[in-house]
């Protein structure tokens, strides 16, 4: 029967069993006695106050304090009992009293027709924009007065996705009720419909025998095993089978495709537990920093690489790391054997390949190999020789000095993005990066070169230690974070240096690291240099993803960052849209803001609880742990 999991998830679930209790028993007794002594002392001290006029209010306040001491002891240290349902912060902060006096606003369910609503890729709105170069498929967000003030529903019958790695091959039909691809791509082995579920055999347009065998073919041409290739980007990803099968090789791919006639292809990818975003190469830069990916891939992605002065390959060059590879399969590669099946003329296909070769050469790429259906080019490690060649040809010219990482609604330019200066032809522009997994903990070149204002190697190392401490604390508050199959798709809404993701890298999950465009420091390039993935985003707008994308959302100081920039409720409604039923949230922020967040969370029907900072109750910053309760559209909504 469709519905929630048999285990009831709560914001601060605790581990059960005697083992944990024995481990902490001695510490519990000491801490409990200390807290009881302090609470009693302050109670007696308060009773001694001679101000008779305030006796009643003082005693009432101290009673609350005594209750809170006991509650804190239970929530923080007792691993064998359930945590209290409510932590009363009234005595610690007057904001709680002010908030309680205001009736909580409730947010009704949206109509069932909004179950797959993507605000910035709305198909009706997109028709208002030019079709030339697929501009209408780009982000076009609603105006403020068009924002929904309701909760996007899951379809009736929604079930929690299969656990990874089973989810790589299976997804529930009720969660993504679209059969079109099973017919349209039947011969290509993309997806099959089997009763109440979909099966993903791992096939693709250019790899009907499976992505695993296709990746093995790539591995015979370039080294995929030594850790030199860690981050990849897949343009026009389909259901992201290429990215899904790279994960077993410790390569993480950012897969993207537009929301187009291939209904729900990115949604299928996310349901499988594979990183993906809705996106398209059109008139704007991709929302990633320069020099981000070790490998870029296109398998019959239908992007006209040789047209428009090569602007799309120029954009791939921008996001490709020095020495990185671009892999192309499908038209026009191997056209002599496929031209009849592709229903195109030899001359047409030959001209297309000639255009691509010409653009690649103008970017100073070296063609590594063309074998069978695969062709691979490599970007140079620096631009020393390229600049020499530019004296003879100016097509495309080098871009003027600019910020190559600027990529939020930034126009693509038909000029070659400059690489950082080097002193020799053997030097890697921007700094060499260690192989994976060593690169995760090494100081990123952008930081060691002082390219990010205010971020030093010492700050980087301290941030790593801080997040190891914080993740340990998170797991004591909610042990679900330590369960290997509880979360798969994770979002960090304000990632800074990626410390949250790095602390979880050994778990069977992936983290989408967001660097808000309003953040003081642009650190996304450093995150990629660590071998992690992410994207730029403004949380005043919706994210380029489907509803129910993430199992866990982490928000560190997000609401402080966006205070006076946009409405808190709109950010939280977006969090609700992209969070799966029974998904979890961890929000850390100033206590004044967190009390308001708690009130909105109640209106969203989240079960939530405020807990103290890992350094104790005297810190102004608090944490809110929440769970989105299971609910769907009614049965008759279809």
Automatic annotation (TrEMBL):
Q: Which GO terms describe its biological process?
A: methylation
Source organism superkingdom: Eukaryota
Which keywords does UniProt give here? Glycoprotein, Membrane, Methyltransferase, Signal-anchor, Transferase, Transmembrane, Transmembrane helix
Q: Which organism is it from?
A: Centaurea solstitialis
Q: Which InterPro entries match?
A: Put_SAM_MeTrfase (IPR004159), SAM-dependent_MTases_sf (IPR029063)
What is the protein name given in its UniProt record? Methyltransferase
Enzyme class label: transferase
Database matches in SUPFAM superfamilies: S-adenosyl-L-methionine-dependent methyltransferases (SSF53335)
Q: Any one cellular component term from GO for this entry?
A: trans-Golgi network
Matching Pfam families: Methyltransf_29 (PF03141)
This protein's membrane topology, according to the annotation, is: Single-pass type II membrane protein
